[in-house]
């Protein structure tokens, strides 16, 4: 029985390692791209017509006309005086708040660059992290426009050229929002004002189109929004050493009925998205960050994907809007281009917060993250928060593991008697097994209980793996000294080596198997796990170290108590 117990313990440890390898290969199986940020340019080499989706007038009913009278023509107000910033290259327009700096191309009014001011490119960098960009090294932009019968975005004529009163807009001190209007005068007497509404301290951007019809005929068109991404590799991963790990990058979409769905770029043509929904969203994901379009929740939009050349598009198309002569109409959608923070994403659309993908252990991972976040609110350091969380998890699991510790302690004290029985019965394995079971029963020992700590730790450790891989809050989060990023590997390998030592000490406190092969395998486990952990997030290795240290203290205390009170039973 002891032999099978040891095999079960080994099996549990190998299952843990195997599942981690599978998750690691799924999320980190590709070589990452160069971290250098390309210089933005106004337009890509792709023809303008390739960026324009087809109108969906036949598949979506027209929006009921709810027009307002056209007001007198007014000149858009200029923003209040703001700090001077460098002009955007090649006539681009910059919008800057306390959260980011957005660059808009006046041709089409697309967002061609976004710099996240509160997220550095790397731990040792002073440059803001660049999420969207349009350059020779990478094309990743958020596009929107008006298509249809009278829409200015047309395959034949290309994208409209908007004009703006300024080339740079900055949220001034004391301002709570920034409104940036871009104007296009259509030849049919229709004025279109494309506006970006940004709010202080927030990432969502409201993108709206005000169609003012001063012509003689009704105006008809549809709003579209899409994320354009080429097939270049994900540049957002932190430096993970020679393993060159990179996470999932691709499309995603959701509806009120199907909250979260991934769609790889390779599936855009093989299994294209074509869903007519109310209250949906589309997005492109990369490690820690997301760019998403959320159509007006009160309209029924078509979510779709397509591929043009080297570019992948995922977006939405609103219903047809009709604006009568002398009337005006405003349509809008929300653009989110920023970190995958659940509190920011959840209010925008159902399921958008699930882009923080904790995998199949999501319920456990979510509880652990919320606990970690709560502790961090008091401590202010994610490393110490991990240590305290580990202690709390250990306390919660102690009632379940205490019996196992006592049983393993008894196994250790009866080891001499086990050895004596083996010598007495020699090669008679059946008799030895009978005597061993009788000894277990007499001493109240359950050898299988030694598997319980491993089985309890497996889902917790796996869940924390996903938490550290997906929670942007831990990106570039320092602990102490050389640990400057808990989400990346320990480049000095100090924590993995400490973890291996604690694992070795922990094993020494437990009864050793009589089978030489089993004993050899157990001795190799600390080495195997140490090598395996060299490239894992340092925060995850820190959790394992603290867990091992607490286990050592608990087991040592229980061993001492059992040895002190143990009296061999006779008969």
UniProtKB/TrEMBL annotation:
Required for the insertion and/or proper folding and/or complex formation of integral membrane proteins into the membrane. Involved in integration of membrane proteins that insert both dependently and independently of the Sec translocase complex, as well as at least some lipoproteins. Aids folding of multispanning membrane proteins. It comes from the Bacteria. This is Membrane protein insertase YidC. GO terms for molecular function: membrane insertase activity. NCBIfam families: PRK01318.1-3 (NF002352), yidC_nterm (TIGR03593), yidC_oxa1_cterm (TIGR03592). Interacts with the Sec translocase complex via SecD. Specifically interacts with transmembrane segments of nascent integral membrane proteins during membrane integration. Belongs to the OXA1/ALB3/YidC family. Type 1 subfamily. It is a multi-pass membrane protein. The gene is yidC. It comes from Aquirhabdus parva. Its main location: membrane. GO terms for cellular component: plasma membrane. Residues 93-369 form the Membrane insertase YidC N-terminal domain. GO terms for biological process: protein insertion into membrane; protein transport. It is found in: Cell inner membrane; Cell membrane. The chain crosses the membrane at residues 7-24, 382-402, 491-509, 521-546.
């Amino acid at each position: 029985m002891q032999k099978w117990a040891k095999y079960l313990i080994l099996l549990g440890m190998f299952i843990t390692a195997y599942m981690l390898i599978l998750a690691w290969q799924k999320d980190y199986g590709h070589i990452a791209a160069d971290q250098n940020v390309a210089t933005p340019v106004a337009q890509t080499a792709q023809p303008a017509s390739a960026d324009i989706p087809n109108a969906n007038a036949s598949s979506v009913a027209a929006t009921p006309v709810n027009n307002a009278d056209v007001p007198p023509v007014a000149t858009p107000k200029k923003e209040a005086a703001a700090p001077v910033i460098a002009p955007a290259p090649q006539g681009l327009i910059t919008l800057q708040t306390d959260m980011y700096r957005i660059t808009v191309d006046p041709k089409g009014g697309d967002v061609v660059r976004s710099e996240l001011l509160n997220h550095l490119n790397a731990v040792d960098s002073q440059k803001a992290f660049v999420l969207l960009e349009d350059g020779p090294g990478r094309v990743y932009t958020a596009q929107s426009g008006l298509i249809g019968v009278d829409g200015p975005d047309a395959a034949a004529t290309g994208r409209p050229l908007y004009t703006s009163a300024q080339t740079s807009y900055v949220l001034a001190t004391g301002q709570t929002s920034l409104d940036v209007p871009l104007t296009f005068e259509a030849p049919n007497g229709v004025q279109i004002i494309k506006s970006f509404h940004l709010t202080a301290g927030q990432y969502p951007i409201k993108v709206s189109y005000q169609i003012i019809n001063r012509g003689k005929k009704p105006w008809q068109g549809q709003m579209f929004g899409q994320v354009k991404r080429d097939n270049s590799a994900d540049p957002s991963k932190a430096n993970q050493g020679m393993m060159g790990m990179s996470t999932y990058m691709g499309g995603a979409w959701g509806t009120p009925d199907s909250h979260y769905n991934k769609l790889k770029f390779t599936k855009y043509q093989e299994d294209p998205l074509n869903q007519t929904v109310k209250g949906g969203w589309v997005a492109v994901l990369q490690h820690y960050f997301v760019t998403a379009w959320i159509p007006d929740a009160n309209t029924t939009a078509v979510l779709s994907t397509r591929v043009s050349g080297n570019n992948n598009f995922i977006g939405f198309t609103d219903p047809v809007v009709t604006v009568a002569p002398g009337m005006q109409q405003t349509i809008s959608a929300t653009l989110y281009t920023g970190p995958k923070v659940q509190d920011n994403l959840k209010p925008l659309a159902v399921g958008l917060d699930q882009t923080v993908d904790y995998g199949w252990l999501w319920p456990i991972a979510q509880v652990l993250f919320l606990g970690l976040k709560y502790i961090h609110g008091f401590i202010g350091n994610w490393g110490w928060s991990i240590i305290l969380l580990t202690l709390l998890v250990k306390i919660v699991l102690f009632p379940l593991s205490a019996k196992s510790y006592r049983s393993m302690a008894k196994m250790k004290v009866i080891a001499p008697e086990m050895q004596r029985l083996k010598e007495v019965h020699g090669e008679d394995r059946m008799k030895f097994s009978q005597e061993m079971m009788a000894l277990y029963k007499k001493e109240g020992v359950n050898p299988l209980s030694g598997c319980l700590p491993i089985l309890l730790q497996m889902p917790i450790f796996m869940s924390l793996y996903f938490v550290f891989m997906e929670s942007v809050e831990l990106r570039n989060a320092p602990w102490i000294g050389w640990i400057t990023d808990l989400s990346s590997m320990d480049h000095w390998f100090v924590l993995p080596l400490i973890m291996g030592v604690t694992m070795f000490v922990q094993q020494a406190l437990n009864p050793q198997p009589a089978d030489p092969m089993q004993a050899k395998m157990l001795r190799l486990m600390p080495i195997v796990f140490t090598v395996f952990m060299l490239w894992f997030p340092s925060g995850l290795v820190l959790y394992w170290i603290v867990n091992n240290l607490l286990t050592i203290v608990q087991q040592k205390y229980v061993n001492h108590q059992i040895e002190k009170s143990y009296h061999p039973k006779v008969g």
